[in-house]
Amino acid sequence: MNRIVVPLALLLFLPLFGLAAPFLFPGGDLSATGTLSHLWNFVLGGYISSTLVLILGVGVGVFILGVGNAWIVASYDFPGKRVFEWALILPLAVPTYVMAYLFVDLLQFSGPIQSALRTLLGMDSLWFFPDPRSMSGAIWSFSFCLFPYVYLITRTAFLERSGRLIEASETLGYSPLQGFVKLVLPMARPAIFAGMALALMEVLADFGAVSYFGIQTFATGIFKAWLSFGDRVAAVQLALGLLSFVLLIFFIEQSSRSKLRYASSSQSRPLAKPLHGRAAIFAFAFCGGTLLCGFLLPAFALLQLLFKQGLNIDIRYLDWLSNSLLVSILTALISVVLAVFFAYSVRMNSRLSWVNRLLGFGYALPGAVLAIGILSFLEFFHLAWWMSVSMLVLVYAYLVRFLSSSLQSVEAGLSRITPSMDGSAALLGLSRMQILKRVHIPLLKRSLITAGLFVFVDVMKELPATLLLRPFNFDTLAVAAYQLAADERLAELALPSLTIVLVGLFPVFLLSRVIAKS
């Protein structure tokens, strides 16, 4: 088993070789292509500035929403708290590109909000109303869609802080707000950075939302270089530029996670302080407004679009659904098998633990970067025709990107099985494979189901890799929703988008049950 672990893990890193492949060609250097020179002279600066503005804006947005809601829910008792504890993670079920379509549909000139305001104010146009399809609209949309990453991790950090921190700050003469800013917030800083890093990596990996908003980022530049200009080397260069952003955030996130243990010096859980009057109203309004903008309004918009469409279901919907289910189920099953193989191998030989840490890097690869690496690798060996006739290349890309989420779930399950059980089974004459089959697998059923479910949902929502690597006439729900939105056929995208959201609710409900029990 150990002889297979390293080669199999390296097989999942072929896309990185594909990113280096263009430099193996004669003249494949940084200045070899006219497309890259054109991009450098005219648009590359715009890509960099737009990407920086977007991640800075979203960073501020997810910080305010995530930390604010986490602090209110963890520290205070007010009407509706029990619902907000788990309901505030519901926006995770809405893909960013779907949120973008619904956000613009709600706030555009012909949308229900502007129409109602014009009727109420008796005006033909609202000159003061901001343009939803803009950078500010994208920041708003991303923030409400991704803040649960910060909320989940930060809420845990707040719950695990010492129960005497606020009391100690009050004895020093600080108000509750001053105690939060000067004492609690610095101690939760690693958790906050970790959640923000996860959210910002999602922003960098996104293509559907930024292209719909008309924002020129590295992700949209990669697609233009490959599909519009047909220049592989330029696409690879832009992919490497995007990868550098991701690596920086990835290392910040890893560093923050390694410091999470310093967020608290006591295991005592604080008692929530009851709120009354204006304070209770403010807490309810803040959490309720966040939930309204992050999930309830998008859900309302989806249902409204579905009502507009009526019973006229696109005849291609069943094909989109079957294709999505096929690749999602296949990827989930393979990922669970591989996760068990890698996790059990590390359990048997701790010297291989670096392999699992290496595989975790795959989740940090944006879909566009991953797809360009695979395409470049296939072209280097003249195997690009595989992509057009088989979906195995697409499944491989999903495995590279999402295996880490499955692996983490299986590793968590194995950690709850004491080594003494392995020793007892070995004394009874069972081999390693028999121990895995007869002892570990039955005890891992819940972890395996959870691992497969998370991968299944991630594959259903993945857009950039699917757009570049899918075979001919193989559209998924995500691709169909993107193409319909690009054609401004918003009513027709309601059903595929709603299907993706409903599927995404399954892991959210699992998380909500865990939060409710905590």
From TrEMBL:
Q: What is its main location?
A: membrane
Cell compartments where the protein resides? Cell inner membrane; Cell membrane
Q: Which Pfam families match?
A: BPD_transp_1
Q: Keywords, A to Z? A: Cell inner membrane, Cell membrane, Membrane, Transmembrane, Transmembrane helix, Transport
Q: How does it sit in the membrane?
A: Multi-pass membrane protein
The source's domain of life comes to Bacteria
Gene Ontology cellular component list: plasma membrane
- Residue ranges constituting the ABC transmembrane type-1 domain according to the UniProt record: 48-251, 321-511
Write down the InterPro entries for this protein, in alphabetical order.
Answer: MetI-like, MetI-like_sf
Question: Which residue windows are transmembrane per the record?
Answer: 44-71, 83-104, 137-154, 191-213, 233-252, 279-305, 325-346, 358-377, 383-400, 443-460, 493-516
Similarity comment text for this entry: Belongs to the binding-protein-dependent transport system permease family.
Descriptive protein name:
Iron ABC transporter permease
Q: What organism is this sequence from?
A: Polynucleobacter aenigmaticus
